[in-house]
């Protein structure tokens, strides 16, 4: 098995300590939480650092799912397994459960974290698409305090986020609105594989009409795609198969997938269409089931 | 640097490099070779051990990260000379052939039954879906776990075919 | 259309009548594995042991301009750095392959595939060894890589093997079998001819344990002890003697527990030779364990056959002839393990299980800038390819004739009275009773009900497929007059010794990689001499204390070594009979053997047990005239013929019409491996092989980009099925013993890997019938299935 190049190991005892270490050690230092994105890259020597700052001792402080009237706040260190098992999250945002079931595998989910996944910012990464779909915001702590950014601002490009060298992601905030639900659809070649294409959808209804709808895609191009054009097309409309088909068609032409071993560009565009429709349909079905 | 952790109920302290992986720490520094490795990308699961009671892929955990925590390996399944029901189940139901993925499968099976004493076939398959077996085709592993579940629940039926064993 | 047969008497009822040997006993080797006390090569720890890491070429084809090792040598933890040039000085830079080609141990002039070995370091631990690789500076002058096998013979392509004298192209060999004229004549006159291009892409056995070795050379004694992941310890020992010039009696090869082999652990890899050289030079034990990426990109792959299959038939479905041309990709060096006279292995069984009037195959094998190998992964020496071809082309015929694929097969299957059957390519099938096997599969599957369900689903636009495959394979190589590998005959030895207290030791030449030899061979011997398997120790894997043999590839053990074990046990029993006659003071003819004792005919009270006889054989007092003391025997078994297991498989798939994802709903496998030694172990072998089939049919492939970069170099890219991709297997059996095998057993280890890929591909293609799809190549990933649905299936290579 391949092994990492040498580095110094540091363990953070608090958020302030972690941020302080990052500042002192500079851009050759990185945080490690679950480690299942970073350590494989280090073993393949694709990521080389001088300092690794272990923040797993902050799990107590930074792992939480707190339900408030207008939002749910999720700590950055919350593990995938905890997101999957949370009944509160499942009730408010079933898209999380859908996605977590098909992220990596059960053993990896014991370690990987929400923050780690978002900060890795792999274009195929599912939780970024989930958070984009839910219009989440990210709370970033630096030396000078905290700032809050939208998912669009957070996710800058492949492997690039708004988190600066001496900053860390603390929390993700998801706004709660009435009469909504969500769903996630993913096609993978085999259990545990990265997505060929994934689509997340969230829909809010009022008196049978769509008040708002959001769709987020993964693995369809360099950026996780949030698709405002779909939101515009769906607002004020009555859910129907034709409407979903229209949304799917927008999704297909709004993304930029590449042909690779997972699939051809043509197939991926088709999936963007198909999965968008399925995710929307299921979101609406879930709202109606609750009534 | 120095690291101290509890492995199979014993406190150990060793001098390590920061980059040393937990799987190598267990195999090479502690001579616990029951835990294996089989890939470079955290896919195969032959390295699964428990970290604070939860299955983890020890090839993707630094030994340093396990410092101050509890690790259990397959060597720590047997208690007081008694095999764990999952160990017995794998033998009874031919849940292993070459034995290489087996330690990891046993650790995951034991953790599953601790949380879910009567899992369905689907739940068992889901629990082991992050670990690859090239020999058994998985059905016998499922049966092995079901055997263990029935055994510890006291509901296992002794079948006539068991009498045929040499 | 079909009749349903009664289920056979269960094995458990039959076993009630049987003595201790055969039956569903638990495995003797399990107690150590479930405790984590297996002993694999990477578990070997010796005092002062050093670690070896190999620097590999990042490019597929290039001249080596320079190799600068000075920085690596200066690293304080590095003990040795070796380049191709240094090996060349010792005459060790090249070594023979199992196909009479040569392969570079470390590259000297050129690198010929991505991942080829260029240099190695030996360091104090594996971490430093890995670091030191980055300190070696190699300058490459890249050349155009030969990646597209169809273009390998174009005059514009560079010559890969310019190390061979007089090489003017990338041609490796030509081969043919069958009667071209007769076959062409049959095709010319046939009502129906169906042709199809069928690819069996490059795949990899990928056992969970990678390959490796620990070499320990004792310079005082001149003895080399080599622990290695080898399926053929004796053959390796002989080759090391030839290659490294160490006298053979001074080499000990030990194969400890192996974490799977599947053919991947048959060849000698450069890494093993590097470890030996490392130990020779440093005087310390040296361990080399490859990474998974090294395993996938440089060790023995499997298949890579581009086939054109043609089948000729009458319009009512009588198959007349099969003709095929194959383009074979052998990689940069011809490293296939195949008997010398059979460069294409046993591909000649592409005639399948059918009674043909004629058959012909022509083959062109070429070199490409890819890893060497080709014969692995339960290939049975190319039988996987042969069976895939015939079962796919028969299915295409069924499609064209609009005939039920089971009906078409039953119409053409060989009949039991035709055995022993000589095929049109000269293979003598020992025995077979095919139709009952097919019908048993249909019964378990509920075939007619499945077709009804399919018809209803099709009306609703749902995609359900039922795939059938019937295979005959040939295993247990082979008679020494026909078969040798590098001049070593494929016979196998066995020794059995009974101790004074009646316990036994049997020593085998074949090497287990998980298939349970410690149990099954004890069972074979137990069946003959009625000593309990618990009292029989099976020794294997160490050349110092086992007899010579060619090793286990995937199905060879039971037909060859199993025969040897049965025969040597009978030899011991014959000697015991003579000793018993002396003990009971009767003639040999007056004795009967029954459940572990010899007794006087007509007077059962006068008897002696095998244990009594063992004690007498070692004890005081005279033995009968001409009988030496001790109770042991040894044989070298030369198989009379191969054995021919067969099977009938049925696969049911459902395809999501929107995403084109394939789900294997059910898989029914009925195998006939002749006499069944341990049903539990047989079932395990079948389950494992069926999983291979799901992998190859739906997701496994070692692919390359146009620059020759290997795209299957990790388990993230080379996808192996998990527990979620496979169903609960449904297995059955029929029994048609082999007439020439001492216990009638045929072997089963490879059968499921042979028969399952065509069954699954046939199922997927059947599901896509509404789209007019007659063929689609593996791996049938969702994207490739979707392409077929759109009307543009593409070849996978």
Features:
heterotrimer, A: 291 residues, alpha+beta, 4-stranded antiparallel beta sheet, 13 helices, C: 797 residues, 7-stranded mixed beta sheet, 6-stranded mixed beta sheet, 27% helix
How would the blueprint of this fold be written?
The complex is a heterotrimer of chains A (291), B (166) and C (797).
Chain A: E1 8-11, H1 15-25, E2 29-32, H2 38-43, E3 51-54, H3 59-62, E4 65-67, E5 71-75, H4 80-85, H5 87-92, H6 94-101, H7 106-109, H8 114-120, H9 126-133, E6 137-142, E7 145-150, H10 151-154, E8 155-157, E9 160-161, E10 168-175, E11 180-187, E12 197-206, E13 209-218, E14 225-226, H11 228-234, H12 241-254, H13 265-290
Parallel strand pairs in A: 1-3, 2-3
Antiparallel strand pairs in A: 4-5, 5-10, 6-7, 6-10, 8-9, 11-12, 12-13, 13-14
Chain B: E1 2-7, E2 10-15, H1 22-29, E3 48-51, E4 54-57, E5 70-72, H2 85-92, H3 102-115, H4 121-127, H5 139-153
Parallel strand pairs in B: 1-5
Antiparallel strand pairs in B: 1-2, 3-4, 3-5
Chain C: H1 11-15, H2 30-33, E1 50-56, E2 62-68, H3 70-74, E3 78-83, H4 84-89, E4 94-96, E5 102-104, E6 110-111, E7 117-123, H5 126-133, E8 137-142, E9 171-178, H6 180-189, E10 192-203, E11 212-218, E12 223-228, H7 233-244, E13 251-254, H8 270-282, E14 286-289, H9 292-298, E15 301-313, E16 319-329, E17 358-366, E18 373-374, H10 383-401, H11 405-412, E19 421-422, E20 428-429, H12 434-445, H13 447-459, E21 463-472, E22 484-485, E23 488-489, E24 492-498, E25 504-508, H14 517-529, E26 536-539, H15 557-584, E27 591-594, E28 597-600, E29 603-609, H16 610-618, E30 631-637, E31 646-655, E32 662-672, H17 679-698, E33 730-733, H18 751-767, H19 782-789
Parallel strand pairs in C: 1-14, 12-13, 15-18, 16-17, 25-26, 32-33
Antiparallel strand pairs in C: 1-7, 2-6, 2-8, 3-7, 4-5, 9-17, 10-15, 11-12, 11-14, 15-16, 19-20, 21-31, 22-23, 24-25, 24-30, 27-28, 28-29, 31-32
């Amino acid at each position: 098995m391949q092994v990492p190049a040498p580095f110094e190991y540091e363990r953070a005892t608090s958020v302030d300590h972690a941020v302080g270490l990052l500042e002192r050690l500079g851009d050759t230092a990185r945080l490690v939480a679950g480690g299942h994105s970073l350590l494989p890259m280090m073993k393949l020597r694709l990521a080389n650092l001088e300092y690794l700052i272990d923040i797993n001792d902050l799990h107590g402080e930074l792992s939480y799912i707190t339900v408030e009237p207008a939002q749910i706040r999720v700590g950055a260190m919350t593990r995938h397994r905890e997101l999957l098992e949370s009944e509160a999250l499942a009730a408010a945002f079933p898209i999380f459960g859908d996605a977590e079931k098909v992220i990596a595998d059960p053993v990896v989910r014991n370690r990987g974290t929400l923050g780690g996944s978002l900060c890795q910012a792999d274009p195929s990464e599912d939780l970024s698409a989930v958070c984009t779909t839910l219009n989440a915001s990210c709370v970033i702590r630096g030396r000078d305090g905290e700032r809050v950014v939208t998912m669009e601002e957070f996710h800058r490009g492949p492997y690039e986020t708004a988190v600066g060298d001496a900053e860390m992601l603390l929390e993700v905030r998801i706004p709660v609105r009435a009469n909504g639900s969500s769903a996630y659809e993913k096609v993978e070649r085999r259990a545990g594989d990265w997505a060929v294409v994934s689509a997340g959808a969230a829909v809010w209804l009022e008196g049978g009409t769509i008040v708002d709808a959001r769709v987020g895609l993964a693995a369809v191009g360099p950026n996780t795609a949030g698709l405002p054009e779909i939101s515009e097309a769906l607002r004020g409309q009555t859910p129907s198969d034709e409407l979903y088909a229209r949304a799917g068609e927008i999704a297909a032409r709004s993304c930029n997938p590449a042909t690779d071993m997972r699939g051809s560009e043509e197939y991926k565009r088709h999936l963007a269409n198909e999965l968008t429709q399925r995710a929307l349909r299921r979101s609406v079905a879930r709202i109606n089931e609750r009534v | 640097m120095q690291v101290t952790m509890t492995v199979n109920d014993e406190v150990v302290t060793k001098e390590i490099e920061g980059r040393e992986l937990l799987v190598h720490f267990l195999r090479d520094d502690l001579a616990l070779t029951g835990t294996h490795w089989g890939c470079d990308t955290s896919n195969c699961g032959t390295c699964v051990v428990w970290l604070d009671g939860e299955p983890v892929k020890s090839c993707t955990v630094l030994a340093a990260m396990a410092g101050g925590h509890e690790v259990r390996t397959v060597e720590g399944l047997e208690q007081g000379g008694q095999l764990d029901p999952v160990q017995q189940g794998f033998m009874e139901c031919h849940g292993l052939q070459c034995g290489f993925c087996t330690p990891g499968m046993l650790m995951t099976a034991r953790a599953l039954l601790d949380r879910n004493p009567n899992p369905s076939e689907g739940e068992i398959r889901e629990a082991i879906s992050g670990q690859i077996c090239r020999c058994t085709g998985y059905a016998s592993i499922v049966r092995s776990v079901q055997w263990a579940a029935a055994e510890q629940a006291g509901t296992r039926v002794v079948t006539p075919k068991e009498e045929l064993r040499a | 259309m079909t009749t349903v047969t009664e289920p056979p008497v269960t094995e458990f009822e039959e076993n009630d009548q049987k003595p201790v040997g055969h039956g569903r006993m638990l495995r003797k080797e399990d107690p150590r594995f479930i405790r984590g006390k297996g002993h694999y090569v990477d578990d070997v720890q010796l005092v002062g042991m050093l670690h070896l890491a190999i620097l590999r070429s990042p490019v597929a084809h290039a001249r080596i301009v320079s190799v600068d090792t000075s920085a690596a040598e200066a690293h304080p933890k590095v003990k040795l750095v070796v380049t191709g040039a240094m090996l060349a000085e010792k005459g060790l830079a090249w070594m023979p392959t199992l196909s009479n080609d040569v392969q570079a141990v470390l590259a000297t002039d050129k690198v010929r595939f991505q991942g080829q070995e260029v240099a190695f370091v030996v360091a104090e631990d594996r971490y430093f060894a890995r670091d030191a690789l980055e300190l070696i500076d190699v300058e490459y002058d890249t050349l155009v890589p030969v990646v597209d096998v169809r273009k390998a013979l174009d005059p514009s392509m560079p010559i890969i093997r310019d190390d061979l004298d007089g090489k003017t192209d990338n041609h490796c060999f030509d081969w043919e079998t069958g009667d071209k004229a007769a076959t062409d004549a049959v095709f010319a006159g046939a009502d129906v001819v169906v042709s199809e291009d069928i690819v069996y892409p490059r795949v990899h056995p990928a056992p969970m344990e990678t390959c490796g070795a620990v070499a320990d050379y004792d310079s005082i004694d001149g003895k080399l002890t080599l622990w290695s992941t080898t399926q053929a310890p004796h053959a390796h020992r002989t080759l090391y003697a030839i290659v490294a010039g160490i006298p053979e009696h001074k080499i000990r090869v030990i194969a400890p527990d192996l974490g799977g082999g599947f053919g991947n652990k048959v060849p000698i890899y450069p890494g093993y030779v590097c470890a030996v050289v490392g130990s020779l030079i440093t005087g310390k034990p040296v361990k080399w364990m490859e990474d998974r990426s090294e395993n996938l990109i440089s060790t023995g792959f499997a298949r890579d056959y581009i086939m054109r299959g043609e089948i000729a038939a009458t319009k009512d479905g009588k198959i007349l002839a099969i003709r095929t041309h194959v383009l074979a990709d052998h990689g940069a060096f011809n490293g296939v393990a195949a008997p010398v006279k059979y460069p294409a292995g046993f591909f000649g069984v592409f005639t399948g299980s059918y009674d043909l009037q004629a058959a012909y195959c022509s083959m062109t094998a070429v070199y490409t800038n890819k890893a060497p190998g080709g014969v692995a992964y339960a290939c049975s020496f190319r039988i996987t390819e042969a069976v895939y071809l015939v079962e796919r082309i028969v299915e295409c015929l069924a499609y064209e004739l609009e005939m039920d694929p089971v009906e078409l097969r039953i119409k053409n299957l060989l009949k039991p009275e035709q055995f022993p059957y000589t095929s049109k390519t000269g293979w003598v099938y020992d025995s077979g009773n095919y139709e009952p096997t097919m019908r048993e599969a249909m019964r378990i599957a509920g075939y007619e009900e499945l077709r009804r369900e399919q018809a209803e689903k099709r009306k609703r636009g749902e995609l359900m497929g039922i795939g059938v495959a019937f295979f005959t394979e040939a295993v247990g190589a082979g008679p020494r007059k026909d078969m040798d590998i590098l001049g070593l005959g494929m016979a196998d030895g066995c020794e059995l010794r009974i101790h004074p207290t009646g316990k036994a030791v049997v020593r085998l030449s074949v090497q287990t990689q998980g298939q349970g030899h410690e149990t099954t061979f004890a069972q074979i011997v137990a069946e003959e001499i009625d000593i309990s398997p618990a009292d029989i120790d099976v020794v294997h894997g160490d050349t110092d204390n086992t007899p010579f043999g060619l090793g286990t590839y995937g199905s060879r053990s039971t037909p060859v070594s199993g025969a040897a074990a049965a025969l040597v046990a009978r030899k011991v029993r014959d000697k015991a009979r003579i000793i018993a006659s002396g003990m009971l003071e009767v003639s040999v003819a007056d004795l009967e053997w029954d459940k572990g004792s010899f007794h006087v005919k007509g007077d059962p009270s006068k008897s002696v047990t095998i244990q009594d006889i063992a004690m007498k054989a070692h004890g005081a007092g005279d033995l009968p005239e001409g009988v030496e003391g001790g109770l042991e025997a040894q044989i070298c078994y030369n198989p009379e013929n191969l054995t021919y297991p067969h099977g009938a498989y049925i696969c049911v798939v459902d395809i999501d019409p929107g995403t084109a994802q394939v789900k294997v709903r059910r898989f029914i496998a009925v195998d006939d491996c002749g006499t069944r030694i341990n049903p539990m172990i047989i079932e395990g072998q079948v389950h494992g092989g069926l999983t291979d089939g799901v992998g190859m049919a739906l997701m496994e492939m070692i692919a390359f980009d146009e620059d020759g970069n290997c795209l299957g170099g990790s388990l993230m890219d080379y996808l192996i099925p998990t527990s979620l991709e496979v169903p609960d297997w449904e297995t059955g059996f029929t029994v048609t013993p082999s007439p020439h095998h001492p216990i009638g057993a045929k072997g089963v280890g490879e059968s499921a890997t042979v028969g399952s890929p065509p069954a699954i591909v046939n199922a997927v293609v059947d599901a896509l019938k509404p789209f007019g799809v007659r063929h689609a190549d593996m791996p049938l990933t969702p994207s490739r299935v979707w392409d077929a649905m759109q009307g543009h299936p593409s070849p996978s290579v």
